[in-house]
UniProtKB/TrEMBL annotation:
tRNA processing among keywords: no
Organism per entry: Gilvirhabdus luticola
Residues in UDP-3-O-[3-hydroxymyristoyl] glucosamine N-acyltransferase non-repeat region domain copies: 21-89
Function statement: Catalyzes the N-acylation of UDP-3-O-acylglucosamine using 3-hydroxyacyl-ACP as the acyl donor. Is involved in the biosynthesis of lipid A, a phosphorylated glycolipid that anchors the lipopolysaccharide to the outer membrane of the cell.
Assembly mode: Homotrimer.
Database matches in Gene3D superfamilies: Hexapeptide repeat proteins (2.160.10.10), MurE/MurF, N-terminal domain (3.40.1390.10)
Coiled coil: none
Domain of life of the source: Bacteria
Catalytic residues as annotated in Swiss-Prot or TrEMBL: 241 (proton acceptor)
SUPFAM superfamilies per UniProt: Trimeric LpxA-like enzymes
Protein name: UDP-3-O-acylglucosamine N-acyltransferase
Entry similarity comment: Belongs to the transferase hexapeptide repeat family. LpxD subfamily.
InterPro entries in the cross-refs: Hexapep (IPR001451), LpxD (IPR007691), Trimer_LpxA-like_sf (IPR011004), UDP_GlcNAc_AcTrfase_non-rep (IPR020573)
C-alpha cells in the first residue's frame, strides 16, 4: 500500500516542501527512517535526526525552519504529533477495510448480515445472529446463536462470542477474547462435591468498547454482565459474572474482578489489581497497580496497596515499612539500655 506526499498532505491538510510525488509504503521512527518510509518530528529533542534521516517523508509543525540541507520531503501541519496519529488511524481503517465472505466459513441461514460485512475464513456465524453494517469478523472466530453485533465493530481472529451476547457499535474485540463463557458458579452438596449453578444470563457491551487480547468476560448467572460505553480493557483481564463497569473506565492488564462487583464511571485501574466480589466502586476512582480491593470505595478515592489504603496514607506508611529493621534495632538498643540501668 503506497501513498504519495500529495495524497498524505491532502488527508492532513498540510503544505508540502519538497517532492509531492515521492511515495511511502511504511512507517518509521525519525532516527530509523529508510527510503520509502514516513516519519514525523514533534519533540525538539529529535530535531537533529531530521538532517540525517533517510525517511522519504517527514511530518513537521508549520513553524519548523530548516537550519541545514535535508533530503526528506516535508509536510507542514499545525500539530505534527496529532497529524501523525490521524494518519495512523486512517492507515488502520484502510488496512482493515475488508469486505465479503471468505470460504470455508459457516453462516446460518437464519443469520442477518448488514451492508459491507466481512467474514473471514473458518469463521462460524450461528443461528439468528445479527451483524450490523460494516462489521468485520476476522478468520477463525466464533459467533454463537442469537448474538447481536452493532455497526462498525471489529472482531479479530480467534475471538469467541458465546450465545445471546450483545455487542454495541464501534467496538474492537481482539484475538483470543472470550465473551459469554459461564460464570464461576458452583454450590457444595451433602457429599462435599460441587454442583454447577447454571449461568443463564449474557454479556452486554455498549458502544465504543475496546477489549484487549485474551481478556475474558463471563456471562451473568441471571441478567447481564454489563460493560458500559467507552470502556477500554487491556489484555488478559478477567471479568466475572454479573459485574458492571461504568462508562469510560479504563483497566490495565491482568486485573481480576470477582462476581457482582459494580465499578463506576471514569475510573482508572492499574495492572494486576485484584477486586473482590459484591462490592461497589464509585466514580473517578484511581487504583494503583497490584493493589487489592476488598471494600466499597467512594467516589474520587485514590488507592494503593493490598489491602488497599488511600494513596497518601500508603506513601506515608511505606516510609515506616522500609525503615522497620532500623526501628526494631533502635527499640532493642533502648530496651538494653533500660534493662542495663534497672
Amino acid at each position: 500500500m503506497k501513498f504519495t506526499a500529495h495524497q498524505i498532505a491532502g488527508i492532513l491538510e498540510g503544505d508540502i516542501v519538497g517532492n509531492p510525488d515521492v511515495e511511502v509504503s511504511k512507517l518509521s521512527k525519525i532516527e530509523e527512517g529508510t527510503i520509502g518510509s514516513l516519519t514525523f518530528l514533534s519533540n525538539p529533542k529529535y530535531k537533529p535526526f531530521i538532517y540525517s534521516t533517510k525517511a522519504s517523508i517527514t511530518i513537521v509543525n508549520k513553524d519548523f525552519q530548516s537550519e541545514n540541507d535535508i533530503s526528506t520531503t516535508l509536510i507542514k501541519v499545525e500539530d505534527a504529533y496529532k497529524a501523525f496519529s490521524t494518519l495512523l488511524e486512517y492507515y488502520n481503517q484502510v488496512k482493515l477495510n475488508k469486505h465479503g465472505i471468505e470460504q470455508p466459513s459457516f453462516i446460518s441461514e437464519s443469520a442477518k448480515l448488514g451492508k459491507d460485512v466481512y467474514i473471514g475464513a473458518f469463521s462460524y456465524i450461528g443461528n439468528n445472529v445479527i451483524l450490523g453494517d460494516n462489521v468485520k469478523i476476522f478468520p477463525s472466530s466464533h459467533i454463537g446463536d442469537n448474538v447481536v453485533i452493532g455497526d462498525n465493530t471489529v472482531v479479530f481472529s480467534g475471538a469467541q462470542i458465546y450465545s445471546d451476547c450483545i455487542i454495541g457499535k464501534n467496538c474492537v474485540i481482539n484475538s483470543g477474547v472470550i465473551i459469554g463463557a459461564d460464570g464461576f458458579g458452583f454450590a457444595p452438596n451433602e457429599k462435599g462435591e460441587y454442583n454447577k449453578v447454571p449461568q443463564t444470563g449474557n454479556v452486554i457491551l455498549e458502544d465504543y468498547v475496546d477489549v484487549g487480547a485474551a481478556t475474558t468476560i463471563d456471562r451473568a448467572t441471571l441478567g447481564s454482565t454489563v460493560i458500559r460505553r467507552g470502556v477500554k480493557l487491556d489484555n488478559q483481564i478477567q471479568i466475572a459474572h454479573n459485574v458492571e463497569i461504568g462508562k469510560n473506565t479504563v483497566i490495565a492488564a491482568q486485573t481480576g474482578i470477582a462476581g457482582s462487583t459494580k465499578i463506576g464511571e471514569n475510573c482508572q485501574i492499574g495492572g494486576q489489581v485484584g477486586i473482590v466480589g459484591h462490592i461497589t466502586i464509585g466514580n473517578n476512582v484511581k487504583i494503583q497497580a497490584q493493589s487489592g480491593i476488598s471494600r466499597n470505595v467512594k467516589d474520587n478515592e485514590v488507592l494503593q496497596g493490598s489491602p488497599a489504603l488511600s494513596y497518601g496514607d500508603y506513601n506515608k506508611s511505606y516510609v515506616h515499612f522500609k525503615n522497620l529493621p532500623k526501628i526494631v534495632k533502635e527499640i532493642n538498643d533502648l530496651e538494653k539500655k533500660i534493662n542495663g540501668n534497672s
